[in-house]
């Protein structure tokens, strides 16, 4: 008897993965690949699009040859801010430009002067000004720097939708990609921004499709459906939206620590935009308010500094437990440096000779990071009825981080959430009804509750 499965491609900047999930959303097969980057015409590094295209077909051929599986559907999740420019046959006309590619200052100035200034555009598109990371700006650049190429473009597809096209043969745009810091979507009008129409960009954008839409594959004689594909940050939120109906904030931790609140529908303020907040659209088309902090990157950098100073391995913190007495001692020390511009913690300015041990220095680092995290997460909580915080990713396994976060939010229920491959599971759940006859499982996410320390002490004293 063949096992019914869905195949999901999870395409990150570094790792490209293929998963097969059974009807209980358990991984039954996994394949991973990494490609050497190539360069664009300016010599800037970019994704090797041809290697990626071939890898999709190679992986599918391998899966279809496995007699134990029946592939019922395929979906895709991929990183955002990346466009594939295709002709009418779907053939790429240009490299997949890197979203970190420097943006020409003169062209940027011209754009914002034409459309009301940086502040106005940032407010209406619910996104900070991010250069090439605003993927709509990449299209604007092509129009003025390479007009002949721009003319030949049939559609500009975000990467998840290009991957979907490879298998379905259909070209669509998707709300989760269009609505994430692209400068394309006007959150006040709930339509494409005025500049998209005025510049003729609208003609280069494929029709919008729903995230739960499924199309037949372009290969004849098969019975599986193909999803439209999703932006990876949106896909990772879906298992939480499916599993929990009380309002919550998800802090997704990695290099960036991103606080996501799908239950906050207040418009972005100027102050929130300046503090690196943005909105994006989740798979049902509703805005999600988000704030970003570069905390994972800073943690990695400062851990190396601590390890070198105390002559210890960098990985030592992984086995460290939360020490309340160290926290109490450090809290009593008044004064000290301040965070740098709300983006970098005070720890960067601290003298490591002031600490008696690796443990003490590490606790101080996490305390400083949590001070920033509290401000960042509070930005998206304000104005909503949220009482729960879920943390996934690297910091969810760090007991010092989790205990200090619970302490920073005494009125919230704080949970470490663990689930394997949230992004890929989210892409599978988005088209659940197209391939899975079973009800959605209610045990997708494992939670560990972190009681706020002082509350915990009082509870323990009241115990018989």
UniProtKB/TrEMBL annotation:
Residues 6-198 form the Carbohydrate kinase FGGY N-terminal domain. Keywords: Kinase, Transferase. SUPFAM superfamilies: Actin-like ATPase domain (SSF53067). One of its GO terms (biological process) is xylulose metabolic process. InterPro entries: ATPase_NBD (IPR043129), FGGY_C_2 (IPR049382), FGGY_N (IPR018484). It comes from the Bacteria. GO terms for cellular component: cytosol. GO terms for molecular function: D-xylulokinase activity. Belongs to the FGGY kinase family. PANTHER family: SUGAR KINASE, XYLULOSE KINASE. This is Sugar (Pentulose or hexulose) kinase. The lineage of its organism: Bacteria, Pseudomonadati, Bacteroidota, Sphingobacteriia, Sphingobacteriales.
